[in-house]
Amino acid sequence: MELRVETDARTTTVDVTDRVADAISPDCDTGTCTVFVEHTTAALAIQENEPRLREDIEGFLADLVPDEGHAHDRLDNNADAHLRATILGPSVSVPIRDGSLALGTWQSILLVECDGPRTRRLSLTVLEG
Ligand code: ZN
């Protein structure tokens, strides 16, 4: 199944936990849900949804990767976004127990937008068992 998520800034994080949880069939008691972002300038992370921490994540990625000076910028001027997304990766896997995402108390699934605002596609794959 697929989710579409709107982002509203060039760099931002969007908590998609509830949308992923709602997409899981109640028939699935135990399994694994893999969430995959189908883009090269956005990523996924499991982290605490705390506004200052989300700001820190954005700042941390900006500190790690300079905005300019990359070879790919000569093509479409967004190498920084590709590199930031590369650090985090495009997918997360979450166990399903008793029909629900078995996340820790402070864990949320965050879409990390590195080149928005855009509409992002997430694919969800549930493996039962
Ligand atoms: Zn590019």
Question: What would you say this structure looks like, in words?
Answer:
The two termini are 18 Å apart. The strands form two sheets. The protein has a five-stranded antiparallel β-sheet, covered by helices on one side. The mean pLDDT is 97. The protein has 129 residues and is of the alpha+beta class. The protein has a single domain, classed as YjbQ-like (Jelly Rolls, Sandwich). β5 and β6 (100-101) form a beta hairpin. The chain is built from four helices and eight strands. The chain is elongated, with a radius of gyration of 15 Å. The protein has helices at residues 17-23, 51-64, 73-76, 79-88; strands at residues 2-6, 12-15, 31-37, 42-47, 91-97, 100-101, 108-113, 119-128. Bound molecules: zinc ion. Zinc ion is lined by residues 72, 76, 78, 82.
